[in-house]
Amino acid sequence: CNSTLDEINKNPNATETPLPPYLLTSTLKQGADLYWGSESNFNSSLLFVQQWAKIQYAEPDRYDVSNTSFTSLWNTGYSTLITDLNTILNFSDQQANSNYKGIALTLRSWTFLLLTDAYGSIPYKEAGLKVTPAYNTQKEVYTGLLEDLKQAQSLLGTANGTVTGDLAYKGNIAKWKKLVNSLRLRIALRISDKEPALAKQAVIDATTDAAGLISSNSEIFQFVYTSSPQQNPASAWFETRDDYRISKTLVDKLYELSDPRLPVYAQLPSDASVGKYVGGANGLSNSAANSQGFAKTSKPGTYFLTSQSPAVIFTYSEVLFDLSEAVARGYIAGDAEQFYKNAITASFNQFGITDATVISNYLNQSIVKYDATNYAKSIGIQKWIAFFGQGLDAFAEWRRLDYPQLTAGPATVLDGQIPSRFFYPGTEQSLNGASYQAAVAVQGKDILTTKLWFDAK
Amino acid sequence: QQIIVKGVVLDESTKLSVIGATIKIKGQNGGAVTDVKGDFSLNVKSLPITLLVSSVGYKNQEIDVYENEPVTAYLSENVNRLNEVVVTALGISKEKKSLGYTMQELKSKDLQNTKETNILNSITGKIAGVRITNSQGDMGSSRIVIRGETSIAGNNQPLFVVDGVPVDNSQLNYGGATRDFKNAIADLNPEDIESLSVLKGPNAAALYGSRAAHGVILITTKSGKGQKGLGVTLTSGITVSNVTTLPDYQNVFGQGSNGKFSYVDGKGGGVNDGVDESWGPKMDGRLIPQFYSNGVAVPFVAHPDNVKDFFNTGLTFDNGISVAGSDAKSDFRLGVNNQKQKGTVPNSEVNKTNFSINANYQLSKNIKVGVTADYVVTSAPTLPGGPSGNRAAGVMLQFLWFGRQVDINELKNNWNNNWNNSYYSNPYWNANYNTTSQQRNRLIGDIHLEAKIIDGLNFKFRTGTDYYNDRRKYTIKYGTSGTPFGSYAEDAYTVDEKNTEAILQYTKKLNEDFSLDALAGFNVRNRSYANNYQKAPRLAVPDLYTLTNSRDALTSSNSFSKLRVYSGYASAQLGYKNYAYLNLTARNDWSSTLPSSNRSYFYPSINGSLVLSEALNLKSNTLDFLKIRGGWSEVGNDADPYQLSTVYNFQTAFDGNPIQTSSQKKLNPDLKPETTRSTELGLESSFLKNRVHFDVAYYNTNSFDQILEIKTTAASGYTSQLINAGKINNHGIEIQLDGTPIEGRNFKWNVGLNYSSNKSKVEILDYDGKIQNYTIGSSGGVDVLASVGKAYGTLYGTAYLRDANGNIVVGANGLPKADPQNRVLGHYTPDWLGGITNTITYKHLELSFLIDASVGGKIFSGTNRTGIYTGVLAQTLPGRDAAHGGLNYYYPGNNTAGTKTLLTTATAPNGETVYDDGVIFTGVYANGSPNTQVISAQEYYKASYNISEAYVYSSSFVKLREVKLTYNFNKKLIKKIGFDGASITATGRNLFFIYKSVPNIDPETAFNTGNAQGLESLALPTTRSFSFNVNLKF
Fold this sequence. Notes:
The complex is a heterodimer of chains A (457) and B (1034). Chain A is 50% helix and 4% strand. Chain A has helices spanning 2-8, 20-36, 38-48, 71-89, 98-119, 138-155, 173-190, 196-208, 233-240, 248-256, 262-265, 286-291, 316-328, 336-350, 356-363, 375-386, 391-401, 427-431, 433-443; strands spanning 52-54, 122-123, 135-136, 221-224, 244-246, 310-314. In chain A, helix 13 (316-328) runs antiparallel to helix 16. In chain B, a hairpin with a 3-residue loop joins strand 37 (720-743) and strand 38 (747-764). Among the domains of chain B are: 3-75, Carboxypeptidase-like, regulatory domain (Immunoglobulin-like), CATH 2.60.40; 878-945, no CATH class. Chain B is built from nine helices and 54 strands.
């Protein structure tokens, strides 16, 4: 009788046995959806850094949001990505080889990085281990991640077994090892204003590691979508809705710089009589946003809005910008200006602009030229342009470098300020109250304008 | 010559024979007494005569006999509480005085003729301790809770048992809320119901085990018992309904923003013509191009009824026929009933046909067999659009984001015309093209056998099923705003529950004083569920609704579940001298849903009753009956299937790569059964010659070891975890009072009153004390919580930031700030419920009216939140211009990006434009000084949109629920034209609110039938209905 009842209660809808390649595919797909999708990207961070703007439902563009507005990064980040990656990490060696674990640890570090960049203090050491995990400070998280990535590097090895289900690098472990070093470089610069010594050591570690860094546009870490229903999330959004325009701030800057990426980044308005690229202004009231005219303003470029458009996560040009800054900060030797020029060139190439004359004409403009007296300004502005569409990282770098200097829109609700972080999900107050209160007590009020630790100025 | 008049005397409600009833001939000598079958025969000299029928415990009855044909006399019970017989758990009839718990019964006359399309709504206000909320509109579902929510997370709906067969009342897939699929119990036809008993909680229902913690509704259907010869009953009714509780709209300002509007393309091409709000120009007849005028400027005027006129008058036709008959060996009843409802939302329609049979046959002297079946076909070509934010279907969504100048007739006449193209399709387009249909075919029935083994020992066997298929089809038309390619989906469910039980019952008079009534039984319950969902997300060609007509791969999902529970149970009632009773029950369940170590669980109950009026001989001229009762009971409850091991789900594969991901719910391999313990005490009394009857009950229920899917921070690895903890206490009192202030030969006035008050307190969530809140549900930024130390159903959300003195803090911009800390905003459960029914009978006319009240509790209103934001509600008029008290202000230098500056004069210093829609939010700056910054009315009314506190209202109400007027035709007269009985009834339902405090909505509105109540979200208006019914018997 007991065995009959046990048999009846065997779940026919799902399996209790996870498999590493399937979990890996899942993490890559869902991670890309999260990074490139609406809530964390084009309905928040892309608006804050004024790369995109809203033409209707402009509340997020006015920062008129609540603590339920930023829940998917938290919930998907932790309970989907990190939980699945931890499942791989907890497999026995028979169930998953060391390369699966190295990849899992790399992707987990990337996820934690997104979380801390956006919210500040986050559960890190106790994440996934306790029902009410304590928060760690950003300093603890960043330094922990540098250690994690060191370990990931040692887990990864071309002789450590094959990996399937890897839709990003197709099982190419050498590329994963380059991504690991590139992530170490990214993190090192995140903490450079606060922990210069640690940052310097991390930069040296990352740049001297034998595996190298992402070193060409063919090594970009990205996720390429296919067709509906597995299409690019921005593309899916534009298929049925019409809420976004490219930001006027960015369009004006690209015009100012005669930047050839403008026709890639923007579409001409559908009203042919306009005849030029027109961005939507950020931070307007709904009616003012609407009044700009749906037909008289530019949507983001079709490059970003096809079904197969990639979710770009780590570019070659970012590596070069990072190296330029690392030199400028004196962490490593080299030619900061050359890295800067190479970074812009890599970005042009990434978007299909390869004409050497066009590139050199652009680089030779005085307003583009590397300013050694203010590397943050040169790198900040160019990184901002190159990061088009990568809202969360553009947001982090803008906060860190403080360039370009952006102005909050006229109808914004933060007394002229632009957000410096995301709200914690409101549910943290009720579900993990004590940990939350302790974190807020250290970090500052859970409001959008509280500056995070890494954001020194 | 002698005429022999034969007849039978039956109990009106049970249709059982009345033995020993006396029959006399009025004005003559002679008479007869009924035999064991209730039969009698009389010798009379001539006809007509009038028979006088009487029996102890029944009211006397006079029957006119015109022709020599068999007479059936139905005796209605006297309100003498000593003899009242009620149907208790497992369908066993018992004398009510022997019960140690309260129970209340409704008879067919209380249920029929109300013509509610959902039977639950006909119970509202009639039974103490029962709370019913209907979700929305005129085709919606209803939620019923008895004695408060005893389960923190689980289903709190009672178990429904129809003729011994447990019947499903799930509301499958209400989660999306795009449509309200009626809860399954609405399939029953009220005309088929003989009686409905409410067993309130574990004390009365312990024998039902696992599912009794929330009470049981026992339904007995009509049978042919007692029908001499063939009886045919025809019923026919028509119901007309209209929407009530529509929001109170303003009719001064039309569509637009900042006072400006001009239509070009309806999506931002004109002046604010993509705006779906009413902050536009005054509707004073000024000339403005509008959506139907092809660019021509036409008068901009109000259409005050543009929302009301969208709704139709609902019409329901209800027709039924039943045939019943019986003889010495058998009885049967066959019925068919059709109900056709055209709803108030255009194109909405539900049809329901019930075929029912109830037949019994005496196989041999000791064996009787029977069958009951109800086959129900519910077919809804289109259900009305639900409350969610679905633009392709939501009705009130569009009408709360709306232009007050919109001429609905222009939309009605051309469905391709539209007032706004950025968000919506024409509402008639939505109603007619974007449809959801439902087809449910259902069989509820059983076969049963009763055998007398020896005197006093009976064997009963029953096997029953409740099986249904429920198919829904969702269509969205090509060209719908937001869904340009349209879509098509099919969602199919199969639910099957089978119960088989065998019971041995032993009744014995032990000696002069003691009697014993005992039973032992065994039940096997099997339930299975299957769901299959498929969707073509974008159609390839228009207007072809098939799954293959798709541009994309189909999205699909399916799920299956099964469970089995074995149960053994026993009960014994020991009676002493007809006034003292002791009742014991015990049950053990073995459930497949629990781990084998915790699978078997036992629970007992004990209760007793003492009729003091008999025991102490207290009967007097004033006191007729006095009883005290009390009991203690425990019931266990199992889990849902498959809650033991955490699983990994497959999602749609990516380009040939399977995708597998962890369930976000962490399951629990060590689950234990839930336990509910309840104590009940009560007192019942009749006095003044049974003219007044009083019943009071107190109960205290503790539910613990509850199986809770606790929401956890995602940082724990899972967004929820299943734990076995949680304790909730419910206690309360219930009072029922029945009185007959006036009773004469022709005139009678009866008053029935019920009152109940339930207090709940969530005591523990997890035993470690780490979890303080359980989220029951959320809407519009408000969470409904079970919060430790508080009443069940706490509303929790954003509040205004306030200073130490309680003043609202505003920023330098003059707008209120939200408190970063969410606050408790109230709880949804009411403090008390009450109902009063007055029934006045004058000769053949019966008038009854029911007023019911729900007092206390809060509701968060999405309708008010939205309608205030969009400026469509009358509440948004103050301050919008000088005539409505608006303050003057100007922008220095006419720089409209600058700061508004308050003016006390009519002109600005440098001749700048003066605006008259200024408002100052009542609040203080951070430094405590009063706010002086003027803002526009539009800013003012939008300022609190994300502050939930602003839209939380008291949900108290007093409602005139029902007025019913019945005329029973004089039996003498209709007999002449061949009828046995005839009546006509006019009923009005949901007539009006005598009191309510929340504006613009019906506070009774529920979100769904789940536990997340207190959240109103753009619900359809409720309806007021009038019905007219004819009932003919021949």
